[in-house]
């Protein structure tokens, strides 16, 4: 009986990250550049979870659908956009280093 409980708990723990796909992961999977590379997209989402707020993740996910939006934000004179861009660059650098 105890073995069954341990096995069931292990199964839940192993599948929990798969069930918690975030906005970056979802956008990445659908993008042409990732070509459905689930492990890469999952890694990028993990980095996003550590470096970006949920709101920033949703905003960054839009860049997968419309890369031009990244350029618009980068060139913006808005303080809010500049602050977001600084956070996004930190995230992108960390994802690039961690998810090779």
TrEMBL record:
It comes from the Bacteria. Keywords: Signal. Residues 1-21 form the signal peptide. This is Arginine transporter. It comes from Paracoccus maritimus.
């Amino acid at each position: 009986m105890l073995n069954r409980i341990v096995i069931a708990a292990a199964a839940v723990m192993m599948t929990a990250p798969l069930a918690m796909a975030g906005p970056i992961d979802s956008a990445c999977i659908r993008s042409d550049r990732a070509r459905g590379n689930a492990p890469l997209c999952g890694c990028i989402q993990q980095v996003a979870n550590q470096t970006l707020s949920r709101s920033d993740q949703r905003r960054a996910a839009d860049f997968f659908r419309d890369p031009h939006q990244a350029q618009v934000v980068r060139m913006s004179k808005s303080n809010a956009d500049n602050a977001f861009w600084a956070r996004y660059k930190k995230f992108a650098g960390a994802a690039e280093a961690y998810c090779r």
